[in-house]
Specification:
The chain is an alpha/beta fold. Helices cover about 35% and strands about 20% of the residues. It binds 2'-O-acetyl adenosine-5-diphosphoribose (OAD).
């Protein structure tokens, strides 16, 4: 889609230009235009017969570590060859222009970091790292490891991806930073997330209750958003560059 044709609501442009503090929450949709399937789309093809709970839980890993490791290895291989798209880059442009900017992501693909976002709050961890299933020790660079799953160099226990699984707590520091940003921002923008998974799903509403302006950017309309939320329907790889161009022309 040509981003010249996307209409960005003037109220959102004004809010962004005037904001002293902006918080952004991204989900898998922002990486869709980099060729990565969204979380729910990733349950297709080879993996169509599985539900997320069959693959993204500690119990599933205990039951069949090779299966779970292979699902993540498949996603990691795709992420490793993907490149950021104009949506990721537009967020780096916003970060440079607003006094306070917090980027909260549910994505585990590392594309915000690759685009140059300085300080990414990883709510769900990173698929590029692994950690010991027994002891929690983090082992970097999953690519360099072999085995389904590879073994911890220290205790020989199985390694798991360093991501948050269903039923697990989010990293406390990431959650704290999300809470602070949500409370203190003037504008909260939720991008490319279905808003189905807590606690990330509540952040937009909490920001609205704390007095922030709220906006959603998604290819489809999201139901039950906080009252007053501006919804821009379109791919984030087009909407975000158009938003930046409208807020800071030239
Ligand atoms: P989902 O797969 O649930 O939702 C992706 C969203 O992106 C949908 O609302 C799509 O409409 C939207 N979308 C698709 N393409 C888009 C585009 N080009 N531009 C804008 N929006 C687009 O992924 P998430 O919401 O990220 O957690 O899922 C949240 C969490 O659920 C994941 O992090 C994962 C899963 O449980 C864990 O693994 C803990």
């Amino acid at each position: 889609m040509d981003h010249e044709k996307i209409i960005i609501p003037a109220a959102l442009v004004e809010c962004l230009r005037a904001a002293k503090s902006v918080a952004v929450l991204t989900g898998a949709g922002i990486s869709a235009e980099s060729g990565l399937p969204t979380f729910r789309d990733a349950m297709t093809g080879l993996w169509a017969n599985f539900r997320p709970e069959d693959l993204a839980t500690a119990r599933a890993f205990e039951r069949d570590p090779a299966l779970v490791w292979k699902w993540y290895a498949w996603r990691r291989d795709m992420a490793a060859t993907a490149t950021p798209n104009p949506g990721h880059y537009a967020l780096t442009a916003i970060e440079k222009r607003v006094p306070e900017f917090t980027l909260l992501t549910q994505n585990v693909d590392g594309l915000h970091q690759l685009a140059g976002s300085c300080d990414v709050v990883e709510l769900h961890g990173s698929i590029m790292r692994s950690r010991c299933f027994r002891e929690g020790t983090v082992v970097g660079d999953s690519d360099a490891l072999s085995g389904d799953p590879p073994r911890c160099p220290a205790c020989r226990g199985p390694l798991r991806p360093d991501v948050v699984w269903f039923g697990e707590n989010l990293p406390a520091d990431a959650l704290n930073r999300a809470a602070v940003a949500t409370q203190e921002c003037d504008l909260f923008i939720s991008i490319g997330t279905s808003g189905m998974v807590e606690p990330a799903a509540s952040l937009l509403r909490l920001a609205a209750e704390a007095g922030a302006h709220t906006a959603v950017i998604n290819v489809e309309r999201i139901a039950n958003v906080a009252p007053g939320t501006v919804q821009v329907i379109g791919p984030s790889g087009s909407v975000l560059p158009a938003l930046v161009a409208a807020a800071w022309p030239g």
